[in-house]
Amino acid sequence: MSEQATTPVVRLDHISRVYHAGSIAVPAVRDISLEIRPRVFCVIVGPSGSGKTTLLNMIGCIDVPDSGGVEVQGEDVLRLSDNALADFRARNIGYVFQSFNLIPVLSAFENVEYPLLLLNVPAAERRRRTLAMLEAVGLETQARQRPNELSGGQKQRVAIARALVKEPALVLADEPTANLDSATGTAITNLMRRMQETFHTSFIFSTHDPRLMAEADQTFSIRDGILV
Amino acid sequence: MLFRLALRNISRNRRRSVMTASLVAMGALAMLLFGAFTTYIFAGIETGLVQRGGHLTVYRQGYFLFGPGNPAAYGIDDHLAVMRDIQNDPVLREMINVITPTQALVGIAGNFSGGTSASKTFFGTGLVGADLERMRQWNEHGAGRPYVPDDRLSDPNASRGVIGRGVARMLGLCGDLHVPNCPSPEAKPAAGGAAPPLDPALADLAHDEQGGRPDVGSGPQIQLLSATADGAPNIVSLDVAGVDTQSVKELDDNYVAMPLLLAQQLVYGRGEHKVTGIVLQLHHTRDVPVARARLLAMIAERHLPLEVRDFRELNPFFVQVVGLFSLIFVFLSLIMVMIVLFAVVNTMTMNVLERTAEIGTVRAMGVRRASIRRLFLTEGAILGALGASLGVALAFIAIAVINHSGMQWTPPGNTDAIPFQLAWPTRPALLLGSWLGLVLAATLATLPPANRAAKSRIVDALRHV
Questions:
Q1: What percent of chain B has pLDDT over 90?
Q2: pLDDT tens figures, A165-207
Q3: Are A105 and B11 within 8 A, CB to CB?
Q4: Which of A49, A75, A158, B368 is surrounded by the most beta carbons within 10 Å?
């Protein structure tokens, strides 16, 4: 195996995160160390309030631990400046949110195209990749529709296409099926699995959904901020 | 993409955006209408001043400070040669519309006819009637009153002139001149039932002066007494052709205009007929600095004891009016800008609040803080630009309506009502200044909410409901 194939896509080294509610300190993540292999379907499971989202935020470089180290794609992200970190996220990390978080004033096509604009991809290339991605998630006919004209499942498909269009090393999904009905949730799970296999991207989920857990290549359980 | 996204974000809450843009439009409308009004005022006053006194006047050195007290002592030697030199100058020749001599004088005007014996001091002007008529047609800005020919000073009868309404009133000539709204003094018979006799020496002078001329006309007549350049008393008779009401009462109570020759006869007697001023009316006011510089160079080159004054120096009232209205405009603009600032701050703060989760989303996707700030600033600028553009359009419509409404008013410096008109606000400083000022205000007003959006933590923004 090549070195790239064996280097963890994410390495957390004794990270801790404490939130402060007034004078009360609430530890969300306590001394967690883990490594996530590349090109896996990885699931972080745990009850509500266990620290899943906090852990995912730190992996996704949108939150920083109070102590410990975070490496993503071999990069010590805690040493990056704010702008460098933004650029790093733009290049390497895709997000799928529980509430889809599409930009309401942009069409499905434009929402998917948006991450490529951040990477200054030429217009023709942008268009080709956006259309290909919309086709991959089965929304080529809804390209011109705005989010308010799409169903929940369609919105999440657009969100997945948006996360994958820049071909990131890592896609993070915070309970992506939580706001979907059972059938749609299953369809989305299957879609993500298929996309992960097609694009060889690492997917990391936080979830309660047993269907997602069943699909996992690597699973981490967290309770009260500690890996169990 | 930035512009497209900003434009769509503005249309997200249409009612709010329309209200904000409307406020900006009202600001632009108010600023431009007031600017158009002041431009018209300035143009109207300038036109009146230039029609009467030209753009530039050449005086004998020291006249501006001391001459009005003793005009006879400040006559320009060989003024015809000076005028000829000016007219022949290749630069000035192209700029000059009218060049004409004037003679200022002070003295006592008296009406000793018909049993009255009224007299009063006067400030007189001797001028060339035909030149004055050409000057009265100057209307560079289109802000002058419609030209009505007036030959009262152009008549071959060199003793015919006009006086201020106040002079007519005090000399008891309102009835003879049929001046409306001009009361005559109550008749107060002097002791003995007759007017007191004129000083015998002056009476002789008046008689000689009267007897030396042919037909003096059928209108009222006044006698003008002044001192010649040599200090000797002199007197002429003036056939009063009518009244020329002056806008300032003090001037109106002292104003006498007469043909240049008559004024020169009164001031210089049989001596050399000089003038106190050479008036230059230019085709365009913008040429004043160049023409003035050229005149000064010419004066210096020929070592002439002359000075040059422009119409602003001679009419400080005009400068004060410009200053006053400019100050009012600045205050009005500040108020408008403040209103726009508050409106846009409010709107953009609401926008940021409503889009907090969206800001977190795009930040998570890799958008930099500066890009977030830029997006909101662009939205503010677009709102400002839309509002200001709408305001400009409304201002032009409003001006067209006002200018065709037939309203009348009496502006400062005028004595009669004239059509109320607004100048088209095409002056770049006004049009672009107002537009850019409001767009800038709207953009700056967006800065605090834009900064707040840019500085928000991603995880907090994503949690925002």
A1: 60
A2: 998 989 999 988 888 888 888 888 888 888 888 888 999 999 8
A3: yes
A4: A158
The encoded tokens of residue B275 equal 């003038």
Bridge partner list, B29: none
Domain boundaries, chain A: 39-63+79-227
* Contact call for residues B364 and B457 (beta carbons, < 8 A): no
Question: What pLDDT score was predicted for residue B215?
Answer: 46
Nearest to A216 by CA among A185, A180, A192: A192
Domain spans of chain B, in order of start: 2-45+319-463, 62-304
For residue B337, the SS3 value is helix
Please list the residues that pair with B275 across neighbouring strands. Answer: B76
B367 contacts A105? CB cut-off 8 A:
no
* pLDDT digit string, tens, across residues A96-153: 998 899 999 999 999 999 999 999 999 999 999 999 999 989 999 999 999 999 999 9
* Cβ <8 Å between A118 and B365: yes
Running DSSP on this structure, what letter comes out for residue B275? B
CA torsion angle for B361, B363, B365, B366 (degrees, to 10)? 170
- In this complex, the residue of B8, B9, B458 whose CB is nearest that of residue A62 is B458
End-to-end CA distance of chain B: 26
Residues in chain B: 465
Nearest CA to A50 among A14, A80, A26? A26
Q: Are residues A95 and B361, on separate chains, in Cβ contact within 8 Å? A: yes
C-alpha span between B465 and B459 (Å, rounded): 12
Q: Per 3-state DSSP, what percentage of chain B is helix, strand, and coil (rounded to 5)?
A: 55, 15, 30
Q: Do B369 and A103 make contact, defined as CB atoms within 8 angstroms?
A: no
Q: Do the Cβ atoms of A173 and A204 come closer than 8 Å?
A: yes
Q: Give the DSSP H/E element, type plus range, for residue A54.
A: helix A52-59
Q: What would the CATH number be for the domain defined by A39-63+79-227?
A: 3.40.50.300
Q: Chain centroid to CA A212: how far?
A: 14
| Chain B residues with beta carbon closer than 8 angstroms to that of A162 | 365
Rounded to two decimals, the pTM is 0.78
- Identify the helix (H) or strand (E) that includes residue B97: strand B96-111
Which of A82, A95, A106 minimises the CB distance to B364? Answer: A95
CB-CB neighbors (< 8 A) of B365 in chain A: 89-90, 95, 114-115, 118, 162
Q: Where are the beta strands (DSSP E) in B210-359?
A: 221-227, 233-243, 255-259, 277-282, 306-310
**Which of B399, B444, B322, B421 shows the shortest CA–CA distance to B31?**
B399
The beta-carbon neighbor of B369 closest among A82, A99, A118 is A82
C-alpha torsion angle, residues A103, A109, A115, A117 (rounded to 10): -110
DSSP A34: E
What distance in Å separates residue B5's CA from the closest CA in chain A?
7
**Chain B residue with the nearest C-alpha to that of A98:** B462
DSSP B336: H
Q: What angle, rounded to 10 degrees, do the helices at B14-53 and B316-354 form?
A: 170
| Residues B155/B241, Cβ–Cβ less than 8 Å | yes
What does each C-alpha distance from A72 to A38, A44, A65, A168 come to in angstroms?
11, 17, 14, 12
Residues of chain A with Cβ-Cβ distance to B456 below 8 Å are none
Beta strands in A22-169 (DSSP E): 24-36, 41-45, 67-72, 75-76, 93-96
